């Protein structure tokens, strides 16, 4: 049986993992949202932690990623464009860089 401190630490670790995993890779969904690696961490929170700690870890991690996150997509000035977004992405963006 875990004590309360261990549960809080585990929930904090899962919250940070959910935040980072959400920011690493976002795949746009045709329905307007995103599919990301953070979804896997959210499911793990629900399976491995108690319902309350799983809810808090998944919710806080996802909220932090949404509030402070950024998405690795689009352009970069060194690749010849300052625009960002999926519509500016090219397959050969970093060719010769």
Explain what you see.
The chain is mostly helical. It has 3 helices and 2 strands; from the N terminus they run H-E-E-H-H. It has a two-stranded antiparallel ribbon with strand order 1-2. A hairpin with a 5-residue loop joins strand 1 (26-28) and strand 2. The longest helix is centred in the N-terminal third of the chain and has 21 residues, at 4-24.
What's the average pLDDT? 78
Sheet with most strands: strand arrangement: 1-2
Order of helices and strands: HEEHH
Detail the poorly predicted runs: none
Helix run count: 3
Silhouette: elongated
Tell me how many strands there are: 2
Write a short abstract of this structure.
With 97 residues, this protein is mainly alpha-helical. It contains three helices and two strands, in the order αββαα. The model has no long low-confidence stretch (mean pLDDT 78).
